[in-house]
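Final report, closing paragraph on structural work. Over the funding period we assembled a curated collection of sequence-structure pairs, and we close with a single example.
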Amino acid sequence: MDYELMMNGTIKIGQHAPDFSSDTTYGPVCLNDYKGKWLVLFSHPGDFTPVCTTEMIAFAKANPYFEKLNTSLLGLSIDSNPSHLAWMHDIYNMTGIVLPFPIIADRNGTIARKYGMIASDISATETVRNVFIIDPEGIVRVILIYPLNIGRFIPEILRIVQALQMSECSKSSTPANWIPGQPVIQPPPQTYPLLQERLNMIPKNNDSMSWYLTFKEPPKECN
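Its predicted structure, as stored:
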């Protein structure tokens, strides 16, 4: 772990996610359990709170879609495991939905501090709504932070995972407002001969706005 992360929990995109191990509502877990899979690690301020309850229900409903993308969900708050279990059961009693993913009981805030999930100017005892998307090699690829009173839009988190996977599979980038099935952006040419070749192809393919902004159809399948 580097010095900056050790001192203030500042994580940047491209860094290895800090290791952890903890009790959860589905037994002990550690970061290494998710090696080879994508992981969406998300924190919530507290159990038995209204916004968090709606988010847990939404994540549970979306879980099959994440699973199809080789992606696991993992929640966290500084509430105790008995509190998590009671909250899970309360959600089940209200909705019939069983939360299919673990929730970490980070009672001493060790994991929350490692990941910078506590915004001290807002609360010293609650985690804000962080989302860390971690790739199969344990690298942090996306960081999202929401305030306490704003619920997350789960389809966008799902779309981000899809965009990351498509980008890797197709060796390309995704444009603004991209959704699965839409064209992706080809890497721009790195030499002048390739630039000229790209310009010559524009009238033929009608898939470009410029030599540096050229689209292509995405692969039919990306694993």
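The chain has six helices and ten strands. Strands lie at 21-22, 29-30, 38-43, 71-77, 103-105, 129-134, 140-146, 184-185, 208-210, 213-216. We thank the funder for supporting this effort.
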